[in-house]
Amino acid sequence: MEEAEEAAAEAEEAAEAETEEAAAEETPAPENEKKGFFKKKEKKDKRDEQIAELTDKVKRQLAEFENFRNRTEKEKSQMYAVGAREVIEKILPVVDNFERGIKSVPEEEKDSPVASGMEMIYKQLMTVLEDLGVTPIEAVGQEFDLNLHNAVMHVEDEEAGENIVTEEFQKGYKYKDAVLRHSMVKVAN
After folding, report:
1. Residue-wise pLDDT tens digits, 38-73
2. CATH for 135-189?
3. Top-level class of domain 46-132
4. Residue (of 146, 141, 144, 139) closest to 173 by Cα position
5. Separation CA 135–CA 172 (nearest Å)
6. Most exposed of 75, 159, 176, 179 (fewest Cβ within 10 Å)?
7. What pLDDT does 189 receive?
């Protein structure tokens, strides 16, 4: 019986040893717990970095898109201005011909339907051009300005002042603030 008791005691000790080993495997040592804690923190730090990086990328993309939108809006308005300018430049000779046609109507025919029709069309055309921002350049009686006038003749006239425009051969026009066509003028010296 002693042998049986000894065998039972050995079996109990072996079972206790196995239980302790299993418990040790299931619960990591405090050192392992610290490593696991830091690993989680490292993962959290990496996620925070990724979030910050992605947030920065989104902000940059939004800024780039806003710059793109502003740039295309500016280009669009410039293209409109250039297109409008080209069309207006092509219409100006028609305006000149209307002015010549109205001036060439004899005095006795000024009240005729054709002459009054030309006058009305001319006025309507000038109103539309003014609405678009086209204005005629004042020349006669003004001091010669190289930015607005193109002197094609010089005349000695003591009654007119120095560098004063005495006659306009072709009317000049501005589109908004830019000169579309310089006035062709005669200047007194």
Report:
1. 556 666 788 999 999 999 999 999 999 999 999 999
2. 2.30.22.10
3. alpha beta
4. 139
5. 9
6. 159
7. 79
